[in-house]
Design a protein that fits this description.
Structural class: alpha+beta
Number of strands: 6
Number of helices: 2
Helix content: 40-55%
Shape: elongated
Radius of gyration: 19 Å
Distance between the termini: 42 Å
Largest sheet: 4 strands, antiparallel
Strand order of the largest sheet: 3-4-5-6
Strand content: 15-25%
């Protein structure tokens, strides 16, 4: 399997001199993608464990425990959304947590909760990201 020059992998653009045609390198790339997916699952489990710990911290007062768990979930969700926004705006990386991803012939649309991200000229050195406000439908 060959990966053409100019392909963007994890924020790095593959140049002319890089040879990723060997089976070992392709399997390494698949392993790294698997590691990213496992990372997302671990992140979600850690979030749920933190919320459960906040809930259990208020034994005998279930209303306060539920409020603490909900506030913690909202806070962490806000931090993850802020991280995704910073990835797109400052590092030109695609958002990691999306509602859905729509692919077209010329661009990719990442649907987020509060905004959409359009990725144009994908897998080239001139790849661009545009953040647009969420339109009411």
């Amino acid at each position: 399997m060959s990966i053409p020059a100019g392909t963007k992998i994890g924020g790095a653009v593959i140049g002319q001199g890089c040879d990723l045609c060997g089976e070992g390198n392709v399997s390494m790339l698949k392993k790294s993608l698997t590691a990213v997916i496992v990372g997302y699952v671990v992140q979600a489990l850690a979030l749920l464990l933190l919320a459960a710990a906040a809930f259990l911290n208020f034994r005998g007062r279930p209303k306060k425990g539920l409020m603490a768990a909900l506030l913690l979930l909202i806070l962490i969700f806000g931090l993850l959304e802020a991280r995704d926004f910073a990835y797109v705006k400052y590092y030109s990386l695609p958002p990691q947590l999306n509602l859905s991803i729509e692919t077209g012939s010329r661009q990719i649309k990442y649907k987020k909760l509060f905004y959409d991200v359009y990725r144009s000229q994908t897998d080239t050195g001139a790849e661009t990201y545009v953040i647009s406000a969420k339109q009411r439908e």
